[in-house]
Structures are given as C-alpha cells and as structure tokens.
Amino acid sequence: MFENLDRLKKEIETYLSDNSFIIFRGQTRTLDEAQIVYWDTEHYPNYLDFIRTAEAAGIRFVVMQTEIFDEETIAELESGLEGLDMPRDERRKFAKRIEKFGAYTGMVSSIELSYVFDHQIYLYSAQALWYHDYEDLYEELMLSGTDLDDGDDPDNSGGSMGGYFSKN
C-alpha cells in the first residue's frame, strides 16, 4: 500500500520508458477470465521486483492501468446514502466520512501492471492507503441495504470505480 500513487505512477512510467519497455494503456486485467497470478505486494511492494521478473523472462510489453478517483465515485456514495433509511446521527456520520474523500478527487487510487508469459497473466496491483477506507465505506453502505451498482452497466465497468475491489 502506498501513500502517493501519483508519484509512483510517474516513477513507473519513467522506469519503463527509460528501460525500453512498451507500455500498453489497458483496462483492469482482474476482469479477465484467464487465470491470473497476483504479485505479493504485501511482502514485496516494490514494483521493480515485479518488472525485473518480466525482464528476466524477456518481456518488454507491459499493460499499465490506473484508476483516478473522481467526483462521480463520491456522488455514487452520496446517492447510496440517500436511499438508506437510518437514524439522522448515523446518516450524518456516513456523510462526514464521504465528504473526506473529496480531498482525493483527481488522485490515482490504484495502479496495475501486468504481462503475459507462457499464456499466463502476471499482475502487480497497488492501491493508495486511503482507498481502503473508501472500500470499507462502500462495503458498509452495501451492507446497510443500499444498491450502489449501476443498473445500466451489468459488469460495472463504466468508468466509476464502484464495485472495484483488488484481489490482493
């Protein structure tokens, strides 16, 4: 977990570019039906360790995906809160927690790097520390009986980060 993924994103892009990697700006690979091998970021958080495995395997093509925390994501939480029947004090506590996320608007909330080797996807995933608080709040609202899913988007991949949870 990282405090500032904006800085990490720039560092990763610079490293990949300086070391002759091809960066493909892709979507999250966690939705792929293929078997994915996840990098252990808890014990080995340095992206360079992951990239060096790609280099050792002769890989020069890396998929990079980033999520930017946006106002739409906050609005989704707010609308979910509106749909709940709960005491005013509890609603106010949720609203204050949601309001704090406004400070993160426009910031990188997650980064994924992946590559394919021998028909297997290898994936490195990093999330901002604060994003776990967002996930916790999202889950609490879901458990409280609100429906935060976008009914028009069955796989919930339409740009909003709602419903996106790392498998790390």
Strand residues, percent:
15-25%
Number of strands: 5
- Major pleated sheet: 5 strands, mixed
The total of helices stands at 5
Strand order of the largest sheet: 1-3-4-5-2
State the order of secondary-structure elements, H for helix, E for strand. HEEHEHHEEH
Q: What's the gyration radius in Å?
A: 18 Å
Low-confidence stretches: 150-168
Mean pLDDT: 84
Global outline = elongated
Helix fraction by DSSP (H/I, runs of at least 4): 25-40%
Find the structural class using helix and strand composition.
alpha/beta
Number of domains: 1
- Give the CA-CA distance, first to last residue: 10 Å
Explained architecture:
With 168 residues, the protein is of the alpha/beta class. It has one domain (5-143). It contains 5 helices and 5 strands. It has helices at 5-18, 47-56, 71-82, 88-100, 129-143, and strands at residues 22-25, 36-38, 61-68, 108-117, 120-127. The chain has a 5-stranded mixed β-sheet. Strand 4 and strand 5 form a beta hairpin. Helix 3 runs antiparallel to helix 4. The longest helix has 15 residues, at 129-143. The radius of gyration is 18 Å and the shape is elongated. The termini are close together. Mean pLDDT is 84; it is low at 150-168.
